[in-house]
Amino acid sequence: HDSSDDYHVILEGETTYIIGGKLVNPREIRPGEWRSEKVEGGERIAVKKGDVMFVPRGTVHQRDTTGKSVKYQIIKVHANTVEQRKPTPPKPA
Question: pLDDT of the chain along its 93 residues, tens only?
Fold first, then answer.
């Protein structure tokens, strides 16, 4: 994801993440969000219930749930979620 950091919270079960590497034949499914059937390279990291995986924006990542069962929650922290706003002046009475 180009504009969001992700926190993956493992609620039940276990899975393996591939972090880093390169997407093979990526396709953009939404502006700034890419998917691919396969990742080349990267590090495989096993996670289980209670683990939290932080994935910085722009980092290739993919879950491998082959032969495993997992329930997880993703918390996205988007860039520019807090805008600097000028105070609105009061309207004259």
Answer: 777 899 999 999 999 999 999 999 999 888 888 889 899 999 999 999 999 999 998 899 998 878 888 999 999 998 765 554 555 566 665
Single pTM value for the model: 0.74
Written as six digits, the tokens of 63 are: 């879950």
What is the distance, to the nearest Å, from the Cα of residue 4 to the centroid of all Cα atoms in its chain? 7
- What does the buried/exposed string (b/e) look like for 23-55 if buried means 16 or more CB atoms within 10 Å of the residue's CB? beeeeeeeeeeeeeeebeebeeeebeeeeebeb
